[in-house]
Amino acid sequence: MSKKILITGGAGFIGSHVVRLFVTRYPDYQIHNLDALTYAGNLANLSDIENAPNYQFIKGDITDRQFIDGLFAGNLYDGVIHLAAESHVDRSISDPMAFVNTNVTGTVNLLNAALKSWKNDPEGRRFYHVSTDEVYGELHDPEDFFREDTAYDPRSPYSASKAASDHFVRAYHNTFGLPVVISNCSNNYGPNHFPEKLIPLMINNILNNRPLPVYGKGENIRDWLYVIDHARAIDIIFHKGGNGETYNIGGENEWKNIDLVNLLCRLMDEKLGRPEGTSAQLITYVTDRAGHDLRYAIDATKLRSRLGWAPSVNFEEGLARTVEWYLSNQAWLEGVTSGNYQSYYEQMYGKR
Ligand code: NAD
Ligand code: TYD
Fold it and tell me: What pTM value is reported for the model?
């Protein structure tokens, strides 16, 4: 059945994979990609599908209430898949307000517009809010995992803003009956990941023989999922998830930062034909991130058992594909890091 779907943040890392999946898998659907094209948004991520007949890009800012109201007045959407956000923890430490504006106010603008647009005919419609496992805080006990009923305990301005947005989505469901679904996913990696985040930053710096900044002692742990498996989960949850339900998505793939950086160094030395140990010499321990969460780990049992999702790519394969992608797309890397873009590391420690 044909559907008209608004995807927000579709020019970003995860959003671009979700847009591609929906445009190619559902030729009957009309996909609108709404994105403000901030530093993190890049239409080059979607050059392969930009001329697809069921795809339309709309440049706009979710913090602009009038613009959002007008968009919903002109389009009766069957669904919204909301990914637009400020997404980098380090940036949230230097500029928390940008996170309040986009992640909280922007989300509430979308909720209000959907509520108004759907109030006479909510049947079959769905507001899907894409969120993060960081809302649950940090884990200490190695036997503990984030479950859907884990209490919220956000500890960075980024996770606090995402937690606030999750609460608003649930409040609109409980108070106004808006049909919603939420997912909270662990750290993603893969092609088109902006090189301010750990994995692409390390790949880019290894390529350019620059220091590899490891925060603190490198002992923090993240649970890594290949971005295409996140997009597949979003597809399943959008179509089959229960109204008002929350699903955790994760890779059951925990890595200490320093082990992951060492693995990337080995992989890159191999690919670049450099003697073993060359890239690891670039590892530089730097001042720890303020409030650095120790460990994230997801229990994805609900999604696996109720909706039948499972990751399709293991970490070895996913990381190899990711490294290959960056090596074959160095023009993309140069494009997104040129001009006045400065990584957080450069802002903190200067260019090397
Ligand atoms: P990203 O930073 O790569 O992309 C965000 C996109 O949103 C960009 O295209 C940007 O231009 C757009 N955007 C930002 N502010 C906007 C605004 N005011 N109006 C319209 N568009 C705006 O982020 P990502 O890593 O792809 O994350 C996407 C979503 O998934 C976010 O909601 C994030 O919280 C969530 N998430 C990310 C991860 C991860 O590991 N990256 C994990 C779990 C959940
Ligand atoms: P990041 O990719 O920023 O994701 P998040 O903070 O949302 O989990 O960081 C992943 C981990 O890597 C996190 O523990 C912080 C650490 N890190 C570094 O050690 N050095 C870096 O340069 C960056 C960007 C992150």
Answer: 0.97
pLDDT tens-digit series, residues 147-182: 999 999 999 999 999 999 999 999 999 999 999 999
pLDDT value, residue 352 = 39
What is the CB < 6 Å shell around ligand 2?
89, 187, 197-198, 201, 213-215, 220, 222, 257, 289, 345
Q: What is the pLDDT of residues 216-236, one digit of tens each?
A: 999 999 999 999 999 999 999
350 pLDDT more than 60:
no
Annotate 279-344 with DSSP letters as a single string.
GGGGEEEEPPPTT---B--B--HHHHHHH----SS-HHHHHHHHHHHHHHTHHHHHHHHSTT---H
Catalytic site residue 196? no
Question: Which atom of ligand 2 approaches the CA of 212 most closely?
Answer: 22
Q: Catalytic residue, from 35, 90, 134, 138: name it.
A: 134
Q: Which domains does the chain have, with CATH numbers?
A: 4-190+224-253+291-314 (3.40.50.720)
Contact 119/128 with Cβ under 8 angstroms?
no
130 lines ligand 1 (CB under 6 A): yes
